[in-house]
Amino acid sequence: MSELIHHTAAELATALADGSASSVEITQAHLDRIAAVDTDVHAFLHVNAEVSLAAAAASDKRRAAGAALNALDGIPVAIKDVLVTTDMPSTAGSKILEGWVSPYDATPVTKLREAGLVPLGKTNMDEFAMGSSTEHSAYGPTRNPWDLDRIPGGSGGGSAAAVAAFEAPLALGSDTGGSIRQPAHVTGTVGIKPTYGGVSRYGAIALASSLDQIGPVTRNVLDAAMLHDIIAGHDRHDSTSLKHEWPSMAEAVRNANVKGLRIGVVSQLDGEGFQPGVLARFHEAIALLEANGAEIVELSLPSLEHAVAAYYLILPAEASSNLAKFDSVRFGLRVTPEGGGTVEQVMSATREAGFGAEVKRRIILGTYALSAGYYDAYYGSAQKVRTLVQRDFAAGFEKVDVIASPTAPTTAWKLGEQLDDPLEMWRGDLATIPANLAGIPGISLPAGLADEDGLPVGIQFLAPAREDARLYNVGGALEQLLVDKWGHTLLSQAPALKVGAR
Amino acid sequence: MSKAKLMDYDKALELFEPVLGFEVHVELSTETKMFSSAPNNFGAEPNTNVTPVCLGLPGSLPVVNEQAVRYSISLGLALDCDIAPSSSFARKNYFYPDLAKNYQISQFDEPIAINGNVEVELPNGRIFQIDIERAHMEEDAGKLTHVGGSTGRIQGAEYSLVDYNRAGVPLVEIVTRMIEGAEHDAPELAKAYVATIRDIVLALGISDAKMERGNLRCDANVSLRPRGSDKLGTRTETKNVNSLRSVERAVRYEIQRQAQILADGGTIIQETRHWHEDTGATSAGRPKSDADDYRYFPEPDLLPVVPSSELIAELKAALPEKPVERRRRLKAEWGFTDLEFQDIDNSGLLTEVAATVAAGASPQAARKWWTGEVARLANAADVDANTLVTPEQVAELAVLIEEGILTDRLARQVLESVIAGEGSPREVVEKQGLAVVSDDGALIEAIDKALSAQPDVLEKIREGKVQAAGAVIGAVMQGMQGKADAARVRELILERATAQ
Questions:
Q1: Which residues share a beta bridge with B176?
Q2: ipTM of the complex
Q3: Fewer beta carbons within 10 angstroms: which end of chain A, N or C?
Q4: For chain A, how big is the Rg over CA atoms in Å?
Q5: Contact present, B494 and B468 (Cβ < 8 Å)
Q6: What is the percent of chain A where pLDDT is above 90?
Q7: Backbone angles phi, psi at A77, to 5 degrees
């Protein structure tokens, strides 16, 4: 196996710049790695070997001519299957879109292509991003590279597992309630949910439009920052994308310094309900930051206790409407009942056959929550809670620069363990959901391994809207402190994947 | 379709008071669609004016068309509405194959314009104020064509074709408040109201307003209240009313139909009804209850529309004059008698006549052609007159007559050819060689020929029997297939008689 796969994207960029590696070599190394381990990991739904090698060759040609488009020109990237692509199918992990190829590229994908990055393939996910384990993919689960019997998190388990298993140095994910950050937490990787509107949603198959956000999935904070710098910015195709002059996130990492930084620790996201090993690593990390000049402030954000309940009304409501378009009339699966049927019967049969159980559960919930007579009690109340969460954060950020918490209550659980208990799985999102409700950015980065099971644990930081750079500052600083303390990166401790182990 | 039993209109009005309400949809003539960059034009090949947004493809997102917002604000101002400092879009959710996303983006609880009114002048001179509840922006649906089956509707069709060219075309829906007190004039008021809306949007230049193309669509709500009762009756909503004539006829029909049912002790079902131009009747559509659940919720893909006060002031300053004022001005400018102006009013063709005058015709000629020959042909074909010819064509015809190139008789012939699509009046004249022969040489030749057949005519004229010329004129006209100016022929014959 080529050593190239173990380098960070930033290191590969240096190798490309000094000519010690070519994009074709790097791309081929990752394709080889995918061929070797992905039968076990199943991070990818589609691998575009030929097209990516052609893109790599084109990148090498550009670089030889001194016309590299970006420092990351020629670096491979995996793309969550929620983003539509013209040269690969886009299914969002659902049977209802099996084999569907979009006539247009999602804006973040366009931006990657314009910067010369090489899309390797599409990564697995819970169907329409509904889930926290990737077990709800219609194409079978992805497995956690740390322990193949465990879940890689979700919904973006594919992107997280791909970077954790060294199948790709970079990946894109989408985060509606933690789908980037929670997989990062359970796979020992880095994931960022940017400020709502920071990255265009155009071409991201919508789950909940007011919560969805596209972001980077990587093995370290600098790589995430470099990817973030490429995909961020206003897009005229997305009315909710912000017109904002974003500072360089990569610069924030390079200049990382927590001296004088006020870090809030939220009482509602600490203690009860969290696995001891998760809490232990969290408190160690906080102590380390304090020892290096950060000021730790206790915070109470009482509305967070209702955040999960509000989220699981707003999300299904929006999803029930967003997913109405999957009706067989214009694209995707079409199931005709025996002996034909009316258009309504065909729509119904298609949706019955094409959607999985979790998707149906949420469509029914959302339809109910929006129904006349229930709207005020459910959707209306949930929006009020959302406002309270936003106010709590606004008040909190008066006192602190960033807020810290464990990313999720537990380490990776075993495949199948929570499948029959959706409420338990939904509760696992309690620390990540508030950022989506408030539209603020969040990062998860490795904090160590839990003592009780030796599995990765993440720490989350949140910042005010448009202050994504603060996350790269504190994340970059903590990452350096931890690596210095451990003497190695966390991922280097992951068990080696045996080729064809399963 | 069997026609329902109808009560005599006058009797219906004796027993009941009609209560009306209108929802008029105006398709805006913007360059692009409401939420996408697809072209907004009529008549393109099916499914060619589409983008991922119009097709509701996965990942696509709507973006509000600023031109549509400006047009909507102008319309709201022209209807004397308050423009909302902030208005928002909502999703109206229902499954139907002409709706690409299976929801329509519309405005629900925060429309862009509220609380307006419009003055409508009836043909009898009565001026009626109609209160506007709201005007809101939304997107049009695609067009379904149901193939097979007897009704042309989705039920019973073998299959249906969908054209998404219309999907996403910007619409403004204007909703009136309940209209009471129209009494006998209810059908005329309905027509006059829609004609007024049409005049307003045409004057604003924000819609092509062609009813036959669906640019302007009227849903007419009709209910009857028994005399002496203060309880409102159950209403029906008649759709598919595609001409001004139909608006009037449909309202009259519903009044008569409902009156008969109520008088027979029956009840009115709250439902949509479809107007059938051919039979002049309405038929039952789907039941409509106030509890239809569209699961409205705020459209999360769009930000609220917050027009600046500068924009509103700018659009307000640019408003055209109000229809009632315009009518008074035009009547004075044209020097029309009450009767002449009423003539135009009854035809609902004021805008056409004005445009014809603007294109160079004399007011009298414009009035004469529109309310005369064009209206006659339109009635025969059961369509609105403005669907047959354009004001420019009528003006050209009038000018051709004034120039002496056409006689009235020839002009009527040219008009029919223009309607048949053979080109502009001048083109038709040229193609068919219809111009009046103004070459005296050719006329004299024809006169000589006619005189040689009736040698005694000149003698009679010289004897003072001038009417004898008529026989020769007839012969000349016949010989020249009507392409001669009879007055000139007469002059020439008289000249000949006095010369010899």
A1: B132
A2: 0.95
A3: C
A4: 21
A5: no
A6: 93
A7: -145, 140
User: Is residue A241 annotated as part of the catalytic site, yes or no?
Assistant: no
State the span(s) of chain B assigned CATH 1.10.10.
Answer: 440-499
Q: Count A/B contacts: CB-CB distance under 8 Å.
A: 103
Minimum CA–CA partner of B292 in chain A: A372
Catalytic residue among A90, A132, A133, A155: A155
> Is A325 labeled as catalytic in the residue annotation?
no
Q: List all residues of chain B from 280 to 339 with a beta carbon under 8 Å from chain A.
A: 291, 293, 295-297, 300-303
- Which of A179, A200, A241, A328 is flagged as catalytic? A179
DSSP codes joined into one string, A318-378: HHHHHGGG-SSSSSS---PPTT---HHHHHHHHHHHHS-HHHHHHHHHHHHHHSTTTTIII
Least CA distance to B161: which residue of chain A? A329
pLDDT, tens digit, 9 for 90 and up, residues B190-239: 999 999 999 999 999 999 998 988 999 999 999 999 999 999 999 999 99
Higher pLDDT, B290 or A470: A470
CB B284 within 8 A of CB B238: no
* Cβ atoms within 10 Å of B158's Cβ, excluding its own: 9
Active site residue A209: no
Instruction: Specify the CATH number for A3-256+441-498; select among 3.40.50.720, 3.40.50.300, 3.90.1300.10, 3.30.2270.10.
Output: 3.90.1300.10
Rounded to whole angstroms, the Cα distance separating A30 from A165 reads 10
- Of A66-75, A474-483, B37-46, the least confident: B37-46
Identify whether the C-beta of residue B176 lies closer than 8 Å to the C-beta of residue B130: yes
Q: Which two tokens stand for residue B1?
A: 């379709």
Question: Which pair of tokens denotes residue A288?
Answer: 């380390």
Counting other chains too, the contacts that B38-44 makes at CB distance below 8 Å and 24 or more residues apart are B38/B168, B40/B169, B40/B170, B42/B208, B42/B213, B42/B215, B44/B165
* B477: its two tokens: 């006209």
Question: β-pairing, A170-174 with A214-218?
Answer: antiparallel
DSSP B137: E
CA dihedral B364, B370, B375, B377 (to 10 degrees): 110
Among B88, B108, B297, most A C-beta atoms within 10 A, so best to mutate, is B297
pTM: 0.87
Looking at residue B108, its amino acid is F
Nearest to B268 by CA among B248, B282, B279, B278: B282
- CATH number belonging to domain B440-499: 1.10.10
> Would you state the structure tokens that stand for residue B223, as one six-digit string?
């209910």
Helix (H) or strand (E) holding A215: strand A214-218
Q: For the segment A224-247, what is each residue's pLDDT rounded down to a tens digit?
A: 999 999 999 999 999 999 999 999
Q: How many CB atoms lie within 10 A of CB A39?
A: 12
- The answer to whether the CB atoms of B293 and A240 lie below 8 A apart is no
Interface test with B, best of A107, A318, A343 (most B CBs within 10 A): A343
* pLDDT for residue A26: 98
Using left for φ > 0, alpha for ψ between -120 and 50, and beta otherwise, residue B14 falls in: alpha
State the pLDDT at residue A500: 57
Per-residue confidence band for B1, with pLDDT thresholds at 50, 70 and 90: very low
Residue B40 C-alpha, separation from nearest chain A C-alpha, in angstroms:
18
Instruction: Show Cβ contacts of residue B457 under 8 Å, excluding neighbours closer than 6 positions.
Output: B451, B468, B469, B471, B472, B493
Query: Hey, CA dihedral for A333, A337, A341, A342, is it positive or negative?
Result: negative
Domain boundaries, chain A: 3-256+441-498
Q: Residue A263: phi, psi to the nearest 5?
A: -110, 120
Compute the distance between CA of residue A229 and CA of residue A250 in angstroms, rounded to an integer.
Answer: 7
What's the rounded Cα separation, in Å, for the pair B492 and A456?
113
* Average pLDDT of span A62-74: 97
